[in-house]
Amino acid sequence: MIALVTGGGGFLGSAIVKALLEKGDTVRTIQRGNYPFLKELGAETIQGDLTKLDDINVAASGCDVIFHVAAKAGVWGDYDDYYQANVIATKNVLEACRINKVKYLVYTSTPSVVFDGHDEEGINETAPYVKNFFNAYQKTKAEAEQLVINANSNNLKTVSLRPHLIWGPADPHLVPRVINRAKSGRLKLVDNNKKIDSCYIDNAVQAHLLAASKLGDNAVCAGKVYFISNDEPIRLIDLVDKILVAAKISFVVKTIPANIAYIIGFILEKIYTLLNIKSEPILTRFVAKQLSTSHWFDLTAAKQDLGYQALVSIDEGMKHLEESLAFDTTQ
């Protein structure tokens, strides 16, 4: 199989690249930056811009499957930046699939597209999209996901995955943020006992490879979306504590009331908007709601249609994380 991975230099993208190479596939990547380690792994790399159809069209030539992982994530920023990176880029990927007769597309979405600020306890893929989005990321990822769903056809089989809170060794998002804030004494969580799902990196990768393998004639997963996680809901404060233990950091996590967190997020958003501050506020309404609500999902569909089952438990993943942090002098 010849596979193209968009965003191959990122956390999830590079892990998918490694897994594909390990099973003997020919792998090509496209991303804005230059990542020499991808070439060292054995991937063909293209430095390009997904908002330019010509770039993705060249990258997609001769490919059997595309893993569209690249996206602009975050909870703050100009809407047009998110629209270009998430919607226009996805339109171009789909058009490149059509031009190059690519058969399969696996799209990396997010559970955020259905998060309306309330508890999500055992919800499944029938949950509706949000009507009033908190931020540009939610809105543009929802639009992109719908583009992928609607593009499914006999000529191009598509499937969308919604992994939740991916973490593990080399994680550039959750793990370093927790560690850095703990070291600075600024680590605070909302005071509650709400449970959340998370997804160890190897499990997220496995889901993507399974999805690609299931796309074919009469594929039951074609045109559908699936929640992906470790299927081990735990309190966020417990997940954070496990990360700190893995990092060998002794820190008592401080908490604040949910309503206070929301008010702070609201005020910060107003201030940042008024002063046109581009950097991300330490807290937003979306983050406050995320921290104060449950997020765990029914994985029945993924198990039945994809054969998905988390291979690495949270505790096993934490052991791998601890080992990686022990050799990481930057943490």
Task: From the structure above, extract its key features.
331 residues; alpha/beta; Rossmann fold; 7-stranded parallel β-sheet; two-stranded parallel sheet; 44% helix; globular
Structure description:
- With 331 residues, the protein is of the alpha/beta class.
- The chain has one domain: NAD(P)-binding Rossmann-like Domain (Rossmann fold, 3-Layer(aba) Sandwich).
- The protein is built from twelve helices and 15 strands.
- The strands form five sheets. It has a seven-stranded parallel beta sheet with strand order 3-2-1-4-5-7-12, with helices on both faces. A two-stranded parallel sheet has the order 6-15.
- Helix 1 packs across helix 7 (201-214), helix 4 (79-100) packs parallel to helix 5 (136-151) and helix 9 packs antiparallel against helix 10.
- It is globular, with a radius of gyration of 19 Å.
- The mean pLDDT is 93.
| Overall number of strands | 15
Overall shape: it is globular
User: What name does the CATH topology carry?
Assistant: Rossmann fold
Largest sheet: 7 strands, parallel
Number of helices: 12
Give the termini distance in whole angstroms: 38 Å
Unreliable sequence segments: none
Spatial ordering of strands, largest sheet: 3-2-1-4-5-7-12
The helical percent reads: 40-55%
Provide the fold topology.
Layout (H helix, E strand, L loop, with lengths): L1 E5 L4 H12 L3 E6 L4 H6 L2 E4 L5 H8 L4 E4 L10 H22 L3 E5 L11 E4 L12 H16 L5 E7 L2 E2 L6 H11 L3 E3 L4 E2 L2 E2 H14 L9 E5 L5 E2 H11 L7 E3 L1 H17 L10 H7 L3 E3 L2 H7 L7 H13 L5
Parallel strand pairs: 1-2, 1-4, 2-3, 4-5, 5-7, 6-15, 7-12, 8-11, 9-14
Antiparallel strand pairs: 10-13
Helix pairs in contact: 1-7, 3-4, 4-5, 8-12, 9-10
